[in-house]
Amino acid sequence: MARFLVPLLVFAVLVAFLWAGLSRDPREVPSPLVGKPAPAFTLPQLQAPDKTFSPADMRGQVWLLNVWASWCVSCREEHPVLVEFARQGKVPLIGLNYKDQRQDALAWLARFGNPYRLSVSDPEGRVGIDYGVYGVPETYVIDRQGVIRMKHIGPVTPEVLSGKIQPLLAELSR
Amino acid sequence: MRRLLVWASLLLALTPAWAGQAQPLAEDPALEARLMKLAKELRCLVCQNESLADSRADLAVDLRREIREMMRQGKSDAEIVRYLTDRYGAFVLYRPPVTPATWLLWFGPFLLAAGAVAGFVYFLLRRRRSLPDAPLSPDEQARVQALLGNDPPPTQNHRP
Description:
Number of strands of chain B: 0
Number of helices of chain A: 5
Structural class of chain B: mainly alpha
Radius of gyration of chain B: 37 Å
Helix content of chain B: 55-70%
Largest sheet of chain B: none
Low-confidence stretches of chain B: 16-21
Structural class of chain A: alpha/beta
Low-confidence stretches of chain A: none
Largest sheet of chain A: 5 strands, mixed
Mean pLDDT of chain A: 92
Strand content of chain A: 15-25%
Helix content of chain A: 25-40%
Oligomer: heterodimer
């Protein structure tokens, strides 16, 4: 009996590991920034380059930082979700326009709608590096104290929004 | 006229010799060598099976630029690695530090090897135990001798 049971057991363990491996996204790198203060920056605003924005301006509010670019295909995918989210107007959404041309970014917003309270320009991608951005789009949930509470890599889908982001926002806004 | 044409074609043939001179990639080859040595130990986050030294992804180019800048400022390799792990986690290191989360990664192969050796020893011991140690009966002994071509031992002493 044991001579069949042992290989079966080994096989079951292997299957469990492979199954778990398949259901994980290998592109998702756990961010060391979750639970840490959002890195400070001061960048010109996309629509009004003479004005700047800094995360410190958002102290006392729960907000979302969304990294986007006009050259990013997945951003187009998540855009309607963000537009719908912004329409509800619960939490301010700030855009980080990452390694983009100003004209392209403005045209993109004009074409697909602008869900952002404001966007900032990061043409060199330096602030992106500080936030550990490696695949646009990325979305950060930042709490009242300015601490990053969640990072989502890849497009925000309705499932991610209602399943992960909204519950966290509700909890943080309480 | 013909001679002129020959000369002209010869001159034309020469042009690539001076047109093809490649510009050196970096102003500071020593710094670039140091950068490449460090970047080989770092993983590109976009194409995760490539090192930061090999990758042509946009982010890899940017990160090399940042590293180059930090090296110019006189930062040590350890400081630069810290800068990257603060932002991207231990994931960027091809040789992650030994922490409880990476124990399985570091020691798993040895664990597997130890398990395999233990299994093999167990198998050998069990096999030895399962082999009958009983001596042969006289009949069997006689058959063995017959098969080996020997005469039954007690009756004759004659051997070639």
